[in-house]
Amino acid sequence: VSSVAEKFDFFYLVQQWPGSFCDTRQGCCFPDTGKPAAEFGIHGLWPNYAKCGRGRGEELASAVLGEDDVAFFSGAVGRRGKCWPEFCDDGNALSLWEVRDLVASLNRNWPTLSCKSGRSFEFWSYEWKKHGTCSNLAQHDYFARALAIKAAYNLTAILAGAGIVPSDTATYSLSSVRDAIAQGTGFTANLECNRDADGNAQLFQVYQCVDRQGKKLIDCPLSMPTKCSSDQLKLPLF
Ligand code: 5GP
Ligand code: 5GP
Asked: Which residue's CA is the nearest one to ligand 2's atom 22?
């Protein structure tokens, strides 16, 4: 475990809609545990800075962190500067033993849909290495907290309650999706869209913002570009 506590401002709990992961040109594969439920699945719990560059390089990250801290981790430097820490401790690999009591729940709630291996443990291990090692949480807490927040706010049910149900024909306005999540959870979230193989815009991922302990939802301090270029979105069947 790294001796220096990572400084960051909040987590994104990112959940993916499986229908939208799978109906792209790239397609998907089901994990070795079988076809996941037609529900949002966890992609990751990602430490984040509330301020990132907006074209000003690394200076905002330095201001948030203090110059001394910047050297302690590798950060992701994108178009908007340093927006999050990542890969904070390559020597800290995920141990199946540490999370053994969570495996059944992880298989249901955090399944891999990539065609790389079919083993969800590899997906969890990658997310732990890239994001979890920067979380200041022990392995078990990191996964348990992500699962607890997902369970406390069932996005699939919240959307259905607002009439936003999976369909291959219906479309929904971006604002109706945004409002349903804000009303159903009590907090604003960020949305990401992608395109199906025919080019239709669809809801792909929901980014809920979580406090630094990974325990409570907060309103998102950042609004990201949505990548939802059209106002009418699909929520495809899975
Ligand atoms: P993409 O470029 O596909 O949006 O993101 C690729 C990867 O970069 C994600 O899987 C995630 O690991 C990381 N990433 C993208 N956006 C964010 C963000 O806003 N915060 C954090 N912490 N990681 C991100
Ligand atoms: P990130 O996008 O978090 O940087 O990287 C996600 C990594 O996990 C990619 O290398 C991707 O291939 C792998 N992966 C495995 N299963 C999944 C999945 O179900 N969804 C996503 N988005 N990535 C997955």
From this structure: 43
